[in-house]
Amino acid sequence: MKNYRFYGWEGAQIQYTRGLRPTDYYDLLSHIWCAETCAPRLRSKWSESNKTLGQCSITAFLLQDIYGGKVYGILRPDGNYHCFNVVGNCVFDLTSEQFGDEVLDYSNCPEQSRTVHFAKEEKKQRYEYLKSRLTEALQSL
Description:
The structure is a single chain. By secondary structure, the protein is α+β, with helices and mostly antiparallel strands. The protein has one domain (19-139). 30% of the residues lie in helices and 11% in strands. The protein has helices at residues 22-29, 56-67, 114-117, 121-139, and strands at 70-75, 81-87, 90-92. It has a three-stranded antiparallel β-sheet, with helices on one face. Strand 1 (70-75) and strand 2 form a beta hairpin. Helix 2 crosses helix 4. The mean pLDDT is 95.
């Protein structure tokens, strides 16, 4: 079994009707995440070696489309929220690698609203772009 570095990967055994687990989506998204899908405030720091940087909310809401569940956020020192997924008892964060060795606290986090996040047009556009690229990747499977 391949070892992943994102939070919760070992327990993320939920499956969508295609039989794909969060690890499978991580593999697909690893080829899709790019500077254009990165949050503009972090774009200058984005790199191939840190593909998950600035991808959290659009990725978490995309995975919510697939698996359902809820999106929660960890309040960061800069006042922004880092988003992750909770589906039933399964907690996973496909973009946690961007924080390196920092240990994030996934307890007692507030639920995040798609309406609030997508009120920013640029974020909604990045989400739509990521979604379209993932749809293309899934069609080629």
